Amino acid sequence: MEGNSSRNVVSYIIPTVIFIFYSFTWLYIQQFEVSASRDIRQLWGHTYLILSVFGGIAGLFISKKWGGYKSLLGKAIAVLSIGLLFQSFGQIYSSYYVYFYDVESPPYPAIGDIGFFGSVLVYIYGVLLLSRLSGVHFSMRKFQNKIWMFTVPIFMLGLSYFLFLKGYELTGISKVQVFLDFGYPLGQALYVSIAILSLIISWNWLGGVLQKPIWFLIFALIFQSLSDFTFIFQAISGTWYVGGVNDFMYLTSYYLMAMALIHMGSVFKKIKES
């Protein structure tokens, strides 16, 4: 038991140390003019993805420990972990392009969007699995839960449209970009709404033990969607640069997702022991 407890503590400490290190170095870099600190920013921007790689791999190990694809819990954690690794792929390509082509920002759309948009699809599947684990499927007989099932997704999709897509201009934009410009916010609104629905319906399930991990996951998913939207906005407006605010947002979203996966594993460990 002591060995398991020690491993749990280490699982939390490693991503936290990585996050603190990159946060302080990012703040230090911001003290310089953007043009004067380009090499430092490049180094920072090309290496912080270690946090998403760690979170994804750690999540896969946690998934394996709890049955992997043989159990609903293991499958949900594995899928969410793969989503984080998809993000890593997008980051790796973006870093490669910026470094080898000596530019400030990667193109959009680009090969990296296979990873970035792929993570949206994977997260949708992951939270669907989580909703089944949370008892959503067995709670649909209640009238009030049926109301939530319709109102939450509609509200999130409507909010996403009015915030990000209202007044969208199609002139001079490729079909791929149009698909991604709509696909990112609407797909993210979908997985956030499913996660919120899971939280509402599973509020008292298993004594409410799922509340904290699902809250953590919702916050991580929301921050992830904000990071993606900021990238699209800055890429289109030409204001994105490596090591900027958006990179720090991605660093934070990777940390939150890694901690959410680790926390889910810890909570369900307690469920199993009890």
Task: Summarize the topology.
Layout: H1 2-29, H2 38-47, H3 50-65, H4 72-100, H5 112-133, H6 136-139, H7 143-165, H8 175-201, H9 211-237, H10 245-273
Q: Return the average pLDDT rounded to an integer.
A: 80
Strand content: under 5%
Secondary-structure content class: mainly alpha
Give the number of domains: 1
> N- to C-terminal separation?
14 Å
The CATH architecture category equals Up-down Bundle
The Cα radius of gyration reads 19 Å
Low-confidence stretches are none
Return the string of H and E elements.
HHHHHHHHHH
Please, how many helices? 10
Residues in helices, as a percent range: over 70%
> Can you tell me the CATH class?
Mainly Alpha
Principal-axis shape equals globular
Total beta strands = 0
Describe the model.
The protein has one domain: Up-down Bundle (Rhopdopsin 7-helix transmembrane proteins). The longest helix has 29 residues, at 72-100. α1 (2-29) packs antiparallel against α10 (245-273). With 274 residues, the chain is mainly α. The chain contains 10 helices and no strands. The chain crosses the membrane at residues 12-31, 43-62, 74-94, 114-135, 147-168, 188-207, 214-236, 248-268. This is Histidine kinase N-terminal 7TM region domain-containing protein. Keywords: Membrane, Transmembrane, Transmembrane helix. It comes from Candidatus Zambryskibacteria bacterium RIFCSPHIGHO2_01_FULL_46_30.
